[in-house]
Amino acid sequence: MKLPIVAYGDPVLRKVADEIDEDYPNLKQLIADMFETMYAASGVGLAAPQVGLPIRLFVIDATPFAEDIEEEKEVLTAFKKVFINPIMVEESGEKWAFNEGCLSIPDINEDVLRHPNIKINYLDENFEEHEIDLSGLAARVVQHEYDHIEGKLFTDKLSTLKKTMLKGKLDTISKGMIRVGYKMKFPFQKKKR
Question: Could you tell me which Pfam families the record lists for this protein (predicted)?
Answer without folding.
Answer: Pep_deformylase
